[in-house]
Amino acid sequence: MSDRIISTSPVQARRLARQWSQAELAERAGISRAAVSAIEGERLSPSVATALALAAVFECSVEELFGRGGISKPSGTDWAWKPRGETSRYWEAEIGQRRLLYPVEAMTLNPTPHDGVWQDGVLRDSGSAAETTLIMASCDPAAGLLAAEYARTSGFRLLVFPRGGRTALELLRQKLVHVAGLHYSTEESPDRNAETVRAQIGSECRLLRVAKWESGIALATDDRSRSAESVAQRSLRWAARESGSAARECLDGLLGKKQFTGREVNGHAAVAEAVRSGWAEAGVCVKFSAAEAGLNFLPVRSEILDLCFPTAFQYDPRIQALVRLLRDRACRQMISELPGYDARETGEIIAL
């Protein structure tokens, strides 16, 4: 039997069993050596993010490593944004040292049971997965597929809130989401995503490449127009995305000085559905949404879809799981098979 000294600290015991130094464990977990020393000496109760990182390194659960009472809980719980009604189902997530409540929405992207119900100013918690939840704001209409693969491969859950690029970045700046999607970069302006992030948030961020995709005009199946330019010259009812979104920039560029006639809608799928149902004659969206709705599609430009996250989150196990997923061959194959998506650069990380 080994003469190794038995430690009362599960972290120290597992580290010594692997013959790692404190510095090596700190590097693997993405924390400081001083934090490792303090946790092993029980002078510091780890945050949830740190506990998850250490558990991932040791390939065990947080409960196995610390028990249920050995983690410092984030202080306070608040709404990320207010619910629309007096009663609301909600999800819960941890961002930094805050626990936030998110009103349930976009169930087609998030077929995930709610964590609780808020009614008459009272929270009725039915079981939270806050520490293992990643929050994304993105207008990618295929993000639900990514969320399903993320849950299957990582054991975490990904909740997607449909938001345009600038709105998503503002939520990221306010630390209300972990990840924000944007697709302002084109072949003519490949650095627009990075420039937009620098201007709105700053340079302490990373961009994680999801795909290149085709953006263009969705038309009814019986519309045989052959060029985007000819469509833009006609007097049509348009389904338009909100101002500041990349799709709206594309539409405004097509129309020039003309003002669009029609209504604003929320999301690429909503644009396609407006055309499919007949109350709009055209709309700018990604090819995927047009194909899903069975519409004709005229490509206008190729755009780059990136996910932005703060550099401070780069060692968060939930972010690391997302990076691993997008670098996985099977996931990249799945993305490449979606209409209009090009996955040759999927998984690349760009530092600002």
Written account of the structure:
The chain has 352 residues and is of the alpha/beta class. It contains 14 helices and 15 strands. The strands form two sheets. Strands 6, 7, 8, 9, 10, 11, 12, 13, 14 and 15 form a ten-stranded mixed β-sheet that branches. It has a five-stranded mixed β-sheet with strand order 1-3-2-4-5, with no helix packed on it. A hairpin with a 2-residue loop joins β2 (87-95) and β3. Mean pLDDT is 90; it is low at 1-7.
Q: First CA to last CA: what distance? A: 52 Å
Beta-strand portion reads 25-35%
Helix content: 25-40%
Radius of gyration: 23 Å
CATH architecture of one domain: Orthogonal Bundle
Structural class by secondary-structure content: alpha/beta
Helical stretch count?
14
* Mean residue pLDDT: 90
The low-pLDDT segments are 1-7
Largest sheet descriptor: 10 strands, mixed
Count all strands and give the number: 15
Q: Quick one: overall form? A: elongated
CATH topological fold name of one domain: 434 Repressor (Amino-terminal Domain)
H/E topology pattern:
HHHHHEEEEEEHEHEHEHEHEHEHEHHEE
CATH superfamily of one domain: lambda repressor-like DNA-binding domains
| CATH domain class name of one domain | Mainly Alpha
